[in-house]
Each structure stands twice: as C-alpha cells, then as structure tokens.
C-alpha cells in the first residue's frame, strides 16, 4: 500500500480524506506544516500532501525527494508557495486541485461584502451585549452600484453573477479577457475609478503583487469597499491601512493577508508578539478579516479529498496527470492556462513510479 505523509492536518481534513480514501492509501496525518524541519516525517513515504501556506522551497523539495517521495499533492488551487523549478529539476511531480468549489469562495466574498455594507459584524457584537442601538449602523444598497471584478476565471465569474443578482452593474478586468463571459472588460484604472466595490480574483504572480498599492488606491473611487479572497500579496497592506484611515477605502473584507502564513489557521490569541499591520487592520470597525476560510464548505472539502486522491491514483497507475503543474505551465514563464510545452504522455515530468 502506498503511503502519504499528510501535513498541516486539521480535524476537517482527516474526516474528508478518511471518507474519500476508504482504506486505499496509508495516510499518515501530521499536524505540523510541511517545512525543512518536518522532512523526517516524510521518510520512506511515496507521496506528500501539503496545503496552501507551506513554504515549499528548494530545500524542502530536495529533502522530500531524498526521502523517497515521488509526488507532492497540493490540496489547494493556488501554488505561489512552491518552488516549481526546483521540483522540476529534482524530478518531483506536483499535482494540485484546480477547482473544488468556486461557489464556496465567491459566496464567501459576497458574505464579506454584505456584512460590511450592512455592518452585520458590529450589529451582532452589539446585540450580544444587549445593545440594540442602530446609531452608526447605516449601510447602503448594493442595487444600482458598480462592482469591479479583477480576474474573471472560475471564481470571479461566479462573483460577477452574484453581483448581477443584487442588481449591480459589473465591470471586469483580466490580463486575458474572455469574451465568452459577456462581461464588460475595462482597464484596471477605469475599473478602480468607477467601482463602489472591488473584488480580487486573480492569482498572485510577480506582475500582480501589490496591484492594490498607494498608487492604484489614489486612482480609486473614494470610499469604495475592497474584498480580497484571492491572495494577500495582491494588496500592499500598509497602503490599505493608510487608505482605510483617510477614507480612500470605505471598508475592507480580507480573507487573505500578505503575511498570513505565520498567523492564519491557528489560535494565536495568546501570542506575545503580533503582526503590527494585521493588529491595526482587525481593530478597525470597517474591516473584517477571516482566516483564509473562503474554501471551507462541506462540498469543497469532499471535492478536495476526492481530487487529491484521484491525482495520486493517476500518478501511481502511470495515467496522464490532468492536474499536474510545472514551472513551464504555472504562469511564471508562460501565461496561465497555456499548455506546458514539455508535456509528454500527459505528464510534465517523466517521473519513475
Ligand atoms: P482561475 O485560474 O479560474 O482564474 C484566474 C483569473 O485571473 C483568470 O481569468 C486569469 O486570466 C486572470 N489573471 C491572470 N493573470 C492576471 C493578471 N496579471 N491580472 C488580472 N487577471 C489575471 O482561478 P480561480 O479558481 O478563479 O481562483 C482565483 C484565485 O482565488 C486563485 O488564484 C487563488 O489565489 C484564490 N483562491 C482563494 C481561496 C480561498 O480560500 N480564499 C480558494 C481558492 C482560490
């Protein structure tokens, strides 16, 4: 039986993977995140399974291969945390789960938006204290307002549909506009200038890092609501904090934060040291931070488990790997979505099984 070293395990992962596995793999669940220090746990395992905030650098890649791991199964869609060139050179196949529930993420973006526009988080805190005052809770109608959707892939398109359902006008920006969406594509500057709500749904790449910074915020419609369920690095957090304080940004719903890996997914309430910018952001009444939980629905967890184990089934049986990625097809050297020129027999890397 093939063995999987499963890192960063949470109770909900174990539940969904045990259900999908039905005994076909020996899954060794570890609470620790995959890192150089955790490598001994992978000794002799055939596969490693990691999640979104593991830093999978060259040392980790080479350490996995040295311990006999042949395939790294990322149980997430984003992959900015993997050194793909190192993986390619070391012959470590990397597979991922490109989509598990775009609805989960788009609906969470909508949840953040609605909570912010109607101050639901503040109202809930008040009524818990038996404070039933409405003063300071005046919101605004989404109907008739403009939503700017940045990145019109699987999640962005669903979010755009949700906004249309609210009766909003939708503007879109994408580096690779897709006419089939029927969306009105405009340059990013125009989207920022006209949108009351801006929601980010594009990947974190060198060219998208800090796409929301002091410069772009200066071009935005004053008082707009920013929603980011994509990747923290898309937003310069210090610039956002300053913009929230001076009213350039009216409210922000953040499911991701650029330095989240040290804090998110764990109870850090007793930490003596805190991240200064994050502490200031969470203290603002017009900010909601959630801990990278947009994916967390029952449906998404079941899809993540079945796709991850299906990826491993395909790898170990020698079948084509639909969900494999390498540095030639991750968007760092070719546009995202373009096929990897090195793909042979349905695989990027001809690893020996
Ligand atoms: P997708 O690949 O279907 O869509 C991404 C879109 O971004 C594509 O249309 C692409 O053309 C566009 N894009 C690429 N480069 C761009 C650029 N430079 N500027 C503007 N647009 C660009 O991806 P998806 O499934 O819709 O996911 C979107 C993002 O959501 C992912 O990159 C991931 O980081 C994030 N995500 C977050 C969670 C969460 O739990 N918070 C879960 C899943 C995905």
Summary?
The protein is of the alpha/beta class and 353 residues long.
Structure in words:
The protein is α/β, with parallel strands linked by helices. It has two domains: 3-100 and 297-317, Rossmann fold, CATH 3.40.50; 102-289, 3-Layer(aba) Sandwich (Rossmann fold). It is 32% helix and 14% strand. The strands form two sheets. A seven-stranded parallel beta sheet has the order 8-7-6-9-10-11-12, sandwiched between helices. The model has no long low-confidence stretch (mean pLDDT 93). Residues 77-78, 99, 102, 105, 150-156, 174-176, 201-203, 205, 207-208, 229-231, 255-256, 292, 294-295, 336 line the site of nicotinamide-adenine-dinucleotide.
For this structure, the CATH topology of the largest domain is Rossmann fold
Q: Approximately what portion of the residues adopt beta-strand conformation?
A: 5-15%
Largest sheet: 7 strands, parallel
Strand order of the largest sheet: 8-7-6-9-10-11-12
Q: How would you classify the helix and strand content by structural class?
A: alpha/beta
CATH-level-4 superfamily name of the largest domain? NAD(P)-binding Rossmann-like Domain
- What's the overall average pLDDT, rounded? 93
Number of helical runs?
A: 11
Low-confidence stretches: none
> How many separate structural domains?
2
């Amino acid at each position: 039986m093939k063995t999987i070293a499963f890192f960063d395990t949470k109770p909900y992962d174990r539940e969904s993977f045990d259900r999908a596995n039905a005994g076909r793999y020996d899954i060794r669940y570890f609470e620790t995140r995959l890192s150089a220090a955790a490598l001994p746990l992978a000794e002799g395992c055939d596969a490693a399974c990691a999640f979104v905030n593991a830093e999978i650098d060259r040392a980790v890649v080479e350490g996995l291969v040295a311990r006999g791991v042949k395939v790294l199964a990322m149980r997430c869609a984003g992959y900015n945390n993997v050194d793909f060139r190192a993986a390619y050179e070391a012959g470590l196949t990397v597979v991922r789960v490109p989509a598990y529930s775009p609805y989960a993420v788009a609906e969470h973006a909508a949840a953040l938006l609605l909570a912010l526009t109607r101050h639901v988080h503040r109202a809930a805190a008040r009524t818990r204290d038996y404070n039933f005052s409405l003063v300071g809770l005046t919101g605004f109608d989404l109907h008739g307002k403009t939503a700017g959707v940045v990145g019109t892939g699987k999640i962005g398109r669903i979010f755009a549909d949700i906004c249309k359902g609210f009766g909003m006008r939708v503007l879109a920006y994408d580096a690779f506009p897709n006419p089939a969406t029927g969306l009105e594509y405009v340059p990013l500057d125009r989207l920022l200038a006209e949108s009351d709500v801006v929601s980010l749904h594009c990947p974190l790449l060198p060219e998208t890092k800090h796409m929301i910074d002091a410069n772009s915020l200066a071009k935005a419609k004053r008082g707009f609501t920013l929603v980011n369920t994509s990747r923290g690095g898309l937003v310069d957090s210090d610039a956002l904090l300053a913009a929230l304080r001076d009213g350039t940004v009216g409210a922000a719903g953040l499911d991701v934060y650029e330095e989240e890996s040290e804090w998110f997914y764990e109870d850090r309430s007793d930490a003596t040291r805190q991240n200064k910018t994050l502490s200031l952001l969470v203290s603002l009444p017009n900010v909601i931070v959630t801990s990278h939980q947009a994916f967390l629905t029952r449906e998404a967890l079941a899809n993540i488990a079945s796709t991850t184990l299906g990826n491993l089934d395909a790898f170990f049986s020698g079948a084509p790997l639909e969900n494999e990625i390498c540095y030639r097809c991750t968007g760092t050297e070719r546009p995202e979505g373009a096929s990897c020129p090195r793909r042979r027999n349905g695989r990027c890397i001809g690893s020996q099984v």
